[in-house]
Amino acid sequence: VDSASSSHTSSNLSPPLVGCPSPMGTLKRPTSLSRNPSAAGFPIQSWVFSKGAGKSVIAQSPSPETTETTVAIEVEDIPSLLRIVERFAKAVEKLKDVVLEDKQENRRPLAHEFLGEVLRILRQVISMYPLLNTVETLTAAGKLISQVKGYHYEVCNEADKKDFEKAIETIAVAFSSNVSELLMGEVDSSTLLSVLPSEKSRVSVCQSLYRADVGSRVMSAEEVDIILQRSEGGVDSALTYAKTISKYMKDLIGYVERKLALELEFSKGLQRIYQSCKQTITQPHMPFFSIYSLALEQDLEQGTGMHQAASTLQNQTFIMPLLLRKQEHEKKRKEIKEHWLKAKRKLMECEANLRRAKQVYMTRCEEYDKARTAANRAEEEGGSSTTKTVDKKKRLEEEARNKAEEAEATYRTCIADAVTQHQELEHMKVTVLRQIQEVIKQSDQTIRSATISYYQIMHMQTVALPVHYQTLCESSKLYDPGHQYGTHVKDLQMSEEPETHYEFEAYSASSTRGHMTHKSWGSTVSDTDSVGGGSGLGSPTTSTGDISKMARTSSTGTMSSNEDADEKDSNVTSFETPNINGIEPEMVVPTGPFRNVGLSKAAQTHKLRKLRSPSKCRECDSYVYFQGAECEECFLACHKRCLETLAIQCGHKKLQGRLQLFGQDFSQVSGSSPDGIPFIIKKCIGEIERRALRMKSIYRVNGVKTRVEKLCQAFETGKERVELSQSSPHDSSNVLKLYLRQLPEPIMPFRLYNSLMGLAKESLAVVGPEGAETGKGPDLVDLGPETDPELLVLVDRLKNLLKELPKQNTATLRYIARHLRRIAELEDDNKMSPSNLGIVFGPSLMRPRPSGATVSLSSLVDYPYQARIVETLIVFYPSIFHSDSSRAACTSTPRTQSLQQVCEGTNVMIWSVQESSIDEEHCSNDEQGVTDEPGAAESDKLEGHGITLHTFIPNIIVQKRCEYMVLIYLLIF
């Protein structure tokens, strides 16, 4: 089981972690190694993902509408995902119980079995939903595997228990966070290991190469040396490979040097383009001039970054380290080769001496045989030969024998020398092979480090480009054709063209010669005007002061102090009276030296002047030293370039310091609001109801991260003065979800969580017919008196639970539920049913108290129950939030009865406008309280009869719904 689980796991977890580098490969998102280290895989920017077959189809280009119209997971796939999550949670719990149970025997096989089940479910969910394939999940899985395999089951080790529990908590938190982000449409793209379809073939090739290497058993260093030692020419092969690596490093250096030269030339070209085009392409009031201004700045930044990257690669991370390593490699290789050749030469000399000694030995032996034969023959012929001849033969035989013995001794000595030298050569071979492998490893390590640094720098250099281009694309989509032209005309500040009158003038002798018919134009002045008189023909007059102002208006330069004072007198606009939406009116014409800058709607509400001292920009949160703007009334400071995107309106009093809003305790934020509802919730919901009630997948589609972060910063800086009319509704919805999710304690407190989950589980735990699916529960449909009794019990119990909420929580929850009900009523347009809204808002409005891995997993399992509670709040909103006592009190009044009779007996059609002129804050005062006023109950009666109260009544500011009802009543009669 151990080997099976380990091999099975490594084959599934290793490839994504060792895959080939991708052009989009290394980290972000923010260059945080905690979520996506550079060598981990292939993170893709969030804007390239789109829904499609297999839930993993990735768009090659932004969609024609907006990037935000991509959904990470289809709605119909959510139940299946939640079922898999529940299985995963149960498998993790079983694994935890088996490992930590001390009394149970044979725990190791069982632990490995349950570990395999956990990994199998994890692989299944990642294959179905590739957006869950993140570094955190795979890293946590690897840590869990190592802990289970290395756990000492035979002894009770507290350290092992703590490490195992930490591994369980890590994988639970990582998995639950990724699933939550997926369900809420907020996947952090910087952590993804998914790849583009166009890259899949290339990546699969890379992974197949790695698998080919990994598939065959990796040999140890000793095994490699043994194979080469036993092979003929093994050392020579190793030396040849070492020489090839040296040449390879030279080729790599040449490749990178040539590529860096091209990139340096490209960066210089970008800088030249910036210098030549920055004055011509960024003229004010031209279409997209702010877009191209930002694009030029990004080009300059890219060129500078490429130059710095080239310098770093040249001197620090790639070329210089490889050059030094190549030189050291060559030096070591030559030394090793010299030692090897010297040892081989010694052996060759010994072998040559051995061959010579053998030849001499053979010759001496042959001579000895001849001498001995001659001596024996002489002895046999002794009768006829003399004694002297025999002695001579004997002496020659003795000399030959001595020489043969001497040659034999020399021969044996040469053999011993050859054997000794061969042994020394074998020892030298082992040493040489070890040294060669060490040199090769060092060179490999240097090449590896240089390659990682190279592609990491290339990634850091290019990772921001897709986001920049996507931001420019999204900003371009927000442009209305003709907007800049209209702004230009509005900023001209021209006076009205006077009417021209042509009248007959009878001849008179007293008339001066050449008297012309009076013709008054905006650019000319009659002689009577020049002295302050009026025209006798009744034509409009133009004062010298007006002419001077027109002359100043046509100038594109900056203003003097006198001109600034003149502007104060002539262009002050009253902000005292709010319009019917509660948003102060914009200035008709921007004032000050920034009149020719493209200003956002919020920036147009400020009375701007040049910044007088360094300050911090309220838009980008960086310091302003030059070319800054400052409001004379609220003293807001801003960069000139940031005026185009400024989202904070003027409050006509000094702007307060930055507020810690996100992550702040709910009671602190709600306490500053008279109705107990945080201003950020009212602001975001009001904007969505004005513009995006019918927008498809509102709340299911994520906004652009950079814009969302800017809006969050604007809310903390400008508070209620934030202008959202120029922001994407998806950005506003993202800010709302982010605020709710970052509350330390959700709106529905921790103490009610178990009761709410128990209520939802009882509602869903309905035993159906045999073979039918259980755990689904009755559909949530409000049928009035015919509603399912079980649903009525659910509604009544939920209503009683909500009575335990604090007043501010109740008001806020009511406000949000009413908003979600309005969205659900337009389900045909926005595709957001109550169940879908429940899935999105369930984890934001309620969650268990954080206390470890078990809670993280249980909160995932509780997703359907959280969604059930929110869906109930939406469907049965009138029953839950409108008390019977208030209804009875309202019904008892004659005016209410009269209105009800009129509504029942008269076919009245009141047009409902999405961009209602009724101030959302005033409209919700009665709805947000714990008790309802008669007007609120009266409105509920009318809503029950199908009458929509969002009626546009020009030039009337309605502060109470009851006043509004009286107004409708008067209009009807």
From TrEMBL:
Residues 1-14 have a biased composition (Low complexity). This is Rho GTPase activating protein 45. It comes from Cyprinus carpio. PROSITE patterns: F_BAR, RHOGAP, ZF_DAG_PE_1, ZF_DAG_PE_2. GO terms for molecular function: GTPase activator activity; zinc ion binding. Residues 1-37, 373-404, 518-588 are annotated as: Disordered. Residues 222-484 form the F-BAR domain. One of its GO terms (biological process) is signal transduction.
